[in-house]
Write the structure tokens for this entry.
Amino acid sequence: MRVPHHAVAIALTAGVFVQPISTLFPTTVFGATEPAQVVAEAIATQKTSFSVNLPMQQTEALVKTSLQQQPYFAQLYSNMNYESDGTTTRVTIAWLQSAAQTRALDQSIRNTERTLLRPGMSDFDKEWVIHNWIVEHVRYDTSLKRYTPYDAFQGSAVCQGIAALTYRMMSFAGIPVRFVDGTAGGGSHLWNEVKIGGHWYQLDVTWDDPIGGGNRPSYLYYNLTNAQMAATHSWDESGLPQATTDFAQVVKSLSRGSSDPVLRTIANNPTVMAEFQEKVNSQTIGDAIARHIAQGDTQFTVEFAGSAEALAKAMAGLRLSGFQSMSYTYSRSRLPGYQAVQVTLQY
């Protein structure tokens, strides 16, 4: 869920103000005098009001351009009001997150990343630990009242705040990142794209922390291609980098012989590496489990082709021996039409 942005434009007649707007509201911000500079610096410093020596339409265009160039701050306001006497335009902004909160958050992010990130870490490593930190520390706000990255860092926010916190933390870590504004789950939704190892990937940290799922990341929406993300999300791809690289293939190639512990952790994650897991269906799952029993395996993961109902029916119909007890858990796989099944055996 996202806060809708509202803009109100009011054209004033010459008699509305005794003094021109330009004298009531200075048109410089920290020394900037060019209109584009005034607007850019006002947004970057989260001014609540400022004036520009331009008519309303041109001022609105400058503000729109500046917000496109500073997308993080575009997520921090709720309302914008324009008042113009024809030559000078006053802009008033209502911020969801105050400038003081932004400064406090930035310092908190720096302190956190000093602990999280180690010298020599690759972008693969940085993204992984930042993603996990957010999932472990931030809950989705089911009251739908917390929208900002400041709220998220404090422990709870909707997707807008979580995606904005992801954006800020990735940016501070030197990872190129974008916002993706679309729909998912029947409503408006915001998530990110990140550039790792020269390739862009879709990343939805909010959906990697399912409501009621505790603080364990699911990784179902970690570094997907556009095609993979399109199974559950919709968005306008124009103006955004194309995510077309298979992340699991990249990780498999890079992890061969690598001593990087984080990269090896990613390579051993059954969710991220789902396409390389053993694939079974209703007819073959029994044979697959029997092979693991013969090998003495106590826990393993397979990818089941079919619905959760089909999986339950197949498991209920098994007639196997050679173990004391067997249990299993499952979740939706990154592979369309599959369930990720983790089987645990005791002998």
